[in-house]
Each structure stands twice: as C-alpha cells, then as structure tokens.
Write a structure and sequence with these properties.
- Chain B: Interacts with MinD and FtsZ.
- Chain B: This is Cell division inhibitor.
- The complex is a heterodimer.
- Chain A is of the alpha/beta class.
- Chain A is about 40% helix and about 15% strand.
- Chain A has a single domain, classed as P-loop containing nucleotide triphosphate hydrolases (Rossmann fold, 3-Layer(aba) Sandwich), CATH 3.40.50.300.
- Chain A has an eight-stranded mixed β-sheet, with helices on both faces.
- Chain B is of the alpha/beta class.
- Chain B folds into two domains: about 80 residues, Transcription Regulator spoIIAA (2-Layer Sandwich); about 130 residues, Pectate Lyase C-like, CATH 2.160.20.70.
- Chain B is built from five helices and 18 strands.
- Chain B has a six-stranded mixed β-sheet with strand order 5-8-11-14-17-18, covered by helices on one side. A five-stranded mixed β-sheet of chain B has the order 7-10-13-15-16, with no helix packed on it.
- In chain B, a hairpin with a 5-residue loop joins strand 17 and strand 18.
- Chain B is elongated and about 80 Å long.
- Classes of the chains: A alpha/beta, B alpha/beta.
Chain lengths: ~270, ~220
C-alpha cells in the first residue's frame, strides 16, 4: 500500500509543481512506482514540466465523472520504464468541478498500485486545497525564504493542524540563494523552520538550470551534477527513511592556488 | 404541610414554594394563602412586594408565568424576584468558564482566531496574523507576534499583561493600539489597559494598584 503525499504551499509561485515533478522523478529513479496527480484544475502545468503535455487523452475530471476509467487517464512517462505516471488535471473547467470525496476515491484507488501518490496542490486555501488534502496521508509544505511565502506556509500548516493527516506536515525550503544567505540578507533556514515549528524535509538551492530544464520538459533531477538536483534527490532519500545531512550553504567556489598545486602531487 | 408559605424577614416578605409539592398543589395552596390575606381586615393598605424562593427547584418560564399570573390577580401583592438555590449545569459551566483562569499553551498561526471565555494565562506562541480573543483578562508568558484582545466585546475594565513588544496589535474591548516597533520596552511586566479617557494605554505591573484597583484587591493586594 502506497502513501499519498500532498505538496502544498498556500502562496503561488514557490515551486510546488516543480517540486512535485522532481521529487516524483527522483523517487522513480530510485526504483519506486510513483503516480503524480495534478489538482490544479484549469491551470495545469505538471504535464508541461514533465514533457507529457501532448500525450493527454483523459483527465482527472473525466475519471471523477465516470467518462473514463482511471487507467485510461494515466499518462505513462516512457523514460522511467513503468515507474512514473501522471494523472493530469482538466484544463477546460475550474476547481469546483471536483469534490473532496471524488479525489479521495481516486487516491484510494491509486494507492495499492503505487509506492507514492504525489498530489500537486493548487495555490490558495479554497476548494482546490480542500480537494488536494482530502485523500492525503502526509503533506510537504513548500516555501521560499521570503516573508510572504513563510506567512502563507504558516497559514497552511495551521489548516493542516485543524484537519490532521496521518503524518505531521514536513517543510521544504525552495529557491535558496547561497550568496544572499551567506550575506545574511535572506531569511535563515533555522529561523524559518523554528518559526513554522515543523520538521525540515529538505532545502533546494536556486539554480538557473531548473528553469531551462523545466522548459524542455525534463525535470532537473535528471541532471546529476546540479545542486538543485542533489537537493531533490536528498529529499527523496529522506522520504525513503535514509538519514541524509543537509547540503552546505557555503559555496565551494573555485579551489585556491595552493590547493590546486597540492592536488597535482596527490594525483598519483 | 402548606406548599406555599409566607415568611416575614427583615427586608420584607419571602414567599417560599416548597420543593416537595407538585406545582398544581402549590397553585392551590398559594391561592388559598392569597385569599386569606386578602380578607384579613387587619392588614394595612400598602403594597407588599414578595421575593419568591423556589428552594432546590428551577421553575420553567411557563411555570413562573403561572405563579406571576396568579399573584397579579391580587392587587396588594407584587413579585419582586424569583430565586432558586440551584442552577442548571449549563449555567454553572458558563459561570465556571467566566470566573476561571484558563491555561492556554498552543501555537496560534496566521489566520487562526482562538476565542476564549474568562481570564487566560497564555503560554504558547502567536504567529503574525494569529489572534487570541477572550472576554476576560489576558496574562501572557508566551511569544506574541500577533493580536491580543481582552474584554471582548465591550468590557473596558479588562487588561492585558505580559511582553507586548513584538505584538502586532493590542485590543481591549473596542479600543485598539497598533504596536509600532520600539514603542514598548521588552518587559514581561507591561500592562495594557483602557484609561478614564477611554484610550488604550500602557503601564507597568507595579502600577497595577492605580491602574485597576478592583483587580488588584481581588488578587490579594492591600
């Protein structure tokens, strides 16, 4: 029996969809069977980020209203050999088209088939949020080190505490700029985690490649050397129960002159 | 035994309605009693005010009305008030809620409003955008980054005590203050209260006797 995890934030534009796509892909790379559910009805993006937008035949509203069976609507990502599937959102209706019970029924149908069902929640705390939370066992709250995102995350954590899921929500801090955090001009990771009072699941560094890869429909996780990619891989490993230390904020930078000289002698 | 007894006290007359008798019996006895008093030639002409005591019995509104109606037929008498020795559990709980100091230790997050009855000793954290609201006083030992409201909805005698430096707003009844940065000292002995001019102002704990003598005496000050 798999676990359903909702990825939410309250505020828009903090990277919920990117996070969903990358964590899902990272888990699939680890050999887990993952189904990504896009609940941002009317403004679907998860399919685009995964590069699966032109393969959509049916969507979640078709399944909820009985026009299609669930397996018909699932879009398989061929890159991952039967490990990663997407249940796309509808584009021609709005968030009131679904009811929480319908979403829960779909999630419950998916859970036995997959190790993880990741639910990409729309921004806001209205009907769309309620739908996304309805079937979830756990939650990942995504925020960025900005006061507005942290405030909204606080609100969402409050809502999740009012309607508790099986597991307590965990925090993912996205778009961390190393240089600003080193200068102290950006909110500190410890400060955010302490303020929100929930467990920190991971931190993701801001990187230009996240945007370029996402535009090409290929999640950044596929690029092994990228720091953002490492962040998402670490998150996936922690979700699997491994103990992985947080990545260092300090920039490694270019090695110094003497370091390079000494490395010649160590080479042999 | 009579179910309705008239008893003279220092302050006037009590009409005692025995709890052991049924209400129908009470009505019969009460009527007899009032009839007897009406024909008593020695009685003077003044109007007699009755305090009705129902002992360990709570009368319903309808039953009270029956008694009031009967008494109103005798112009010499009028009912001042009806009291019982007992109260309903719901009323008792409300009274308990109102008069107790409630301990509250929780995180009040952005967008959450916590409404309480009576005095509150707050030990938790209020995040920006969170609000703690009560009908009584607030004594805060926690971290307040949100809004505190005492004396809701309109009791200006209530006060808020604790470190209010980091709060967003302090409200007492309908008065409010938007706490500006550096307006208050970081002291956990700050008291917010409404002064005689109905303006919210701040003082320190050692001035409590002057600020709110009633509370000061109630909690044991001399």
């Amino acid at each position: 029996m798999g676990k359903a995890i909702v990825i939410t934030s309250g505020k828009g534009g903090v990277g919920k969809t990117t996070t969903s796509a990358n964590i899902g892909t990272a888990l699939a790379l680890m050999g887990k069977r993952v189904c990504l559910m896009d609940l941002d009805i009317g403004l679907r993006n998860l399919d685009v980020v995964l590069g699966l937008d032109n393969r959509i035949i049916y969507d979640i509203v078709d399944v909820a209203e009985g026009r299609a069976k669930l397996p018909q609507a699932l879009v398989k990502d061929k890159r991952f050999d039967d490990k990663l599937y997407l249940l796309p959102a509808a584009q021609n209706t709005d968030k009131t088209a679904l009811k929480p019970e319908q979403v829960k029924a779909i999630v419950d149908e998916l859970k036995p088939e997959y190790d993880y069902v990741l639910i990409d929640c729309p921004a806001g705390i209205e009907q769309g949020f309620m739908n996304a939370v309805a079937g979830a066992d756990a939650a990942i709250v995504v925020t960025t080190p900005e006061i507005s995102a942290v405030r909204d995350a606080d609100r969402v954590v409050g809502l999740l505490e009012q309607h508790p899921l099986t597991e307590a929500p965990r925090l993912l801090i996205n778009r961390i700029r190393r240089n600003m955090m080193q200068d102290g001009t950006m909110m500190d990771i410890d400060e955010i985690t302490h303020h929100l009072g929930i467990e920190l699941l991971g931190i993701i560094f801001d990187d230009d490649a996240v945007i370029t890869t996402s535009n090409q429909g290929e999640p950044i996780v596929m690029n092994t050397d990228n720091p953002a990619s490492q962040g998402y891989r670490n998150v996936a490993r922690r979700m699997e129960g491994e103990t992985v230390p947080l990545m260092k904020i300090e920039d490694q930078g270019q090695p110094g002159f003497w370091h390079r000289v000494s490395s010649w002698f160590h080479r042999g | 035994m009579q179910a309705a007894v008239l008893r003279g006290t220092q302050n006037g007359y009590d009409l005692v309605i025995k709890q052991s008798a049924g209400l129908d019996q009470v009505m019969i006895d009460l009527k007899t009693l009032l009839e007897n008093l009406r024909v008593d030639p020695k009685a003077d002409a003044g109007k007699i005010s009755l305090d009705v005591l129902t002992e360990d019995r709570i009368l319903t509104a309808e039953e009270k009305q029956r008694i009031e109606h009967l008494v109103s037929q005798y112009p010499r008498f009028e009912i001042h008030k009806m009291t019982a020795n007992v109260m309903t559990i719901a009323d008792a709980l409300q009274l308990k809620e109102r008069d107790n100091v409630h301990l509250l230790s929780k995180v009040i997050r952005n967008g959450q409003d916590v409404e309480m009855q009576g005095d509150v000793l707050f030990l938790g954290t209020i995040h920006e955008g969170g609000k703690l609201c009560t009908t009584g006083n607030i004594f805060s030992m926690g971290n307040v980054n949100g809004i505190l409201q005492a004396g809701y909805p309109e009791d200006e005698t209530k006060l808020i005590m604790g470190n209010l430096q980091t709060a967003q707003q302090v409200r007492i009844a309908e008065q409010f203050d938007i706490v500006e940065a550096n307006e208050l000292a970081a002291s956990n002995q700050t008291i917010a209260y409404v002064n005689d001019l109905h303006v919210l102002s701040y003082g320190q704990l050692d001035q409590l006797k002057k600020i709110n003598p009633k509370l000061y005496n109630q909690i044991g000050g001399i």
